[in-house]
Design brief:
- The complex is a heterodimer of chains A (about 260) and B (about 270).
- By secondary structure, chain A is mostly helical.
- Helices cover about 75% and strands about 0% of the residues of chain A.
- Chain A is built from 13 helices and no strands.
- Chain A is globular and about 55 Å long.
- By secondary structure, chain B is mainly α.
- Helices cover about 70% and strands about 0% of the residues of chain B.
- In chain B, helix 3 runs antiparallel to helix 6, helix 7 runs antiparallel to helix 8 and helix 7 packs parallel to helix 12.
- The chains are: A mainly alpha (about 260), B mainly alpha (about 270).
- Chains A and B meet through helix 2 and helix 9 of A and helix 2 and helix 8 of B.
Chain lengths: ~260, ~270
């Protein structure tokens, strides 16, 4: 309950802050609309040269795209701004302020800033996903759709955990952004259907850097492709990465030497 | 013409700044390259396999992998650390120092921009050589010294084009706060409409014809064609002239906005 109250305070502060920068608010909305448009156009151009990609036709691919757009929007709204500041807090020693709070510092750092300006994009993403699901030609039960959306939310959480792992390297390197740039290069894996990857690469993107789990696996559940295996894999991988992130965070705190570390 | 010594100093200082975190620099470089190769390889392998084709729209699988290897570095050369490079100074009020320096603001920013590009250009040379000599198995891909020289010239001009194009969006910071998203939009559009995400020859013909009226194909598609030697000397000169005209236009707009924007600047940051 304490955490819920705290989060409500975070929301209030974030909205009043966003309203101070109104132009930025609308530019950001426009930016994400351009991003969404480019994603759909990209695959539409590819499907001019093929009928299926990773076993999916254009209709299924459109749902997959709407799915990862939803993950991106949810991440931008809840976590992205916080992740951006993360390395700065460590390098400038600002982490002290969070470590002394009587709440989980990782919770505080991950959720302190709610990107109110991305919230509108989240609504657009939800609208897109709803439209794609409604116009899908095969029948989808309500239960399947609810679980699919839940899996996308879990995918967003996994996305955040993996991002944190790349950023936590700052504890040891002391660099401005850690390995954040590598992470953003890897994020494009999430935007491709998992079944295009084969062999060892596929193994890596499923179990070591599980980008392929985040959006592809929920889509596979929706399309009824080995749903039980999909659910078990998502559950196990997310739990494992949650534990690994906590472990690395604790190790990182041990080497953290406060101001200008 | 003698280059003023302060330009050399700014250039060297920027280079030193870039290599301060060497481990980061190389990990990011290697990581981005590996991801780029893997994603493009498997995506296009899937398309080539579904078509049972060895060549689509003039591209073999090998050539397209090479394309996706080079194109992100071309972006890094052109786009460097441009987002926030000017608007950040306006927002924080740190533009004051540039206004007080007895040097041109644009020359200073272009110098730091070139320092960033130098590093990425070295990355490009390394990757191109390694791929061409050790990995490439496609005998149709032929790199030559002359083509690489012509490619470098186009890259230089297109980097300036992008610098001025981006500076226009950055200078909107005089009127609006926190406008980094405009820089991101410019990047998205340049990448997609220039052929950075998919080579333009895969686009529908009508859209390619339409895009010729925009600067985007000249910023991305044109350098890539020169890199692979897919051009004639006449088309090279024509495209270079058009690219230069776009550069001059963006430079003019950028300078006009800069001159007007200074009257809005309070110098205390926001």
């Amino acid at each position: 309950m304490r955490y819920v109250k705290l989060y409500i305070h975070f929301l209030r502060f974030s909205f009043s802050k966003a309203m101070q920068f109104r132009v930025d608010f609308f530019f950001r909305v426009f930016m994400d609309i351009v991003f969404y448009l480019v994603q759909f156009l990209f695959f539409n151009v590819l499907y001019l040269h093929t009928n299926t990609l990773g076993g999916w036709n254009l209709e299924q691919m459109s749902i997959f795209i709407a799915g990862y757009i939803f993950i991106d929007a949810l991440n931008m709204t809840l976590f992205s701004t916080n992740c951006w500041w993360f390395p700065f807090y460590i390098n400038r020693g600002d982490l002290d302020y969070y470590l002394t709070k009587p709440v989980s510092s990782l919770f505080f750092l991950s959720l302190r800033e709610f990107a109110a300006n991305s919230f509108l994009n989240l609504l657009i993403a939800i609208g897109l996903l709803t439209y794609m699901l409604q116009t899908y030609s095969a029948p989808l039960s309500a239960g399947t759709v609810v679980i699919y959306v839940f899996l996308l939310i879990v995918g967003t959480f996994l996305y955040h955990l993996l991002h944190l792992l790349f950023l936590l390297s700052v504890f040891w390197t002391g660099s401005p952004r850690g390995f954040g740039d590598v992470y953003f290069a890897g994020v494009h894996v999430l935007e491709r259907p998992d079944r295009i990857f084969k062999g060892f690469t596929r193994f890596v993107f499923l179990y070591i850097l599980p980008f392929s789990i985040m959006a592809s696996y929920p889509a596979r559940f929706l399309f009824n492709e080995n749903p039980i295996e999909v659910l078990i894999t998502i559950g196990l991988i997310t739990t494992a990465f949650f534990c690994i992130t906590l472990f690395v965070w604790k190790r990182g705190l041990k080497v953290y030497s406060s101001a200008s570390s | 013409m003698k280059i003023p010594s302060w330009i050399k100093q700014v250039y060297l200082m920027e280079l030193r700044k870039i290599i301060t975190y060497r481990a980061d620099f190389w990990v990011n470089f290697v990581g981005q390259t590996i991801f780029s190769i893997l994603i493009s390889y498997f995506l296009w392998l899937s398309i080539f396999e579904s078509n049972s084709a060895t060549q689509i729209n003039g591209y073999t699988l090998n050539k397209i992998i090479f394309y996706y290897l080079i194109v992100p570095i071309v972006f890094r050369i052109q786009q460097g650390e441009t987002i926030g490079a000017i608007s950040g100074d306006i927002y924080n009020g740190t533009l004051n120092k540039y206004l007080l320096y007895p040097i041109s603001f644009y020359t200073y920013k272009i110098t730091t921009y070139i320092a960033n590009s130098t590093f990425f250009f070295l990355q490009l040379c390394t990757i191109a050589l390694v791929y061409y000599f050790f990995i490439n198995t496609d005998s149709n891909i032929k790199l030559s010294f002359i083509n690489f020289l012509l490619f470098s010239i186009v890259l230089m001009v297109s980097s300036l084009t992008y610098f001025y194009l981006n500076s226009i969006t950055e200078l909107i910071g005089f009127w609006a706060d926190n406008i980094w998203s405009l820089g991101v939009i410019t990047r998205f559009l340049t990448r997609f409409l220039g052929g950075g995400l998919i080579p333009l020859s895969f686009f529908p013909i009508w859209s390619v014809e339409l895009l010729q009226f925009t600067p985007f194909p000249y910023i991305v598609d044109f350098p890539m064609k020169v890199f692979f030697g897919d051009f004639t000397y006449v088309s090279y000169i024509q495209s270079l002239i058009i690219l230069s005209l776009w550069t001059l236009l963006f430079r003019f707009i950028s300078k006009t906005v800069w001159n007007r924007g200074q009257y809005q600047y309070t110098g205390i940051g926001i």
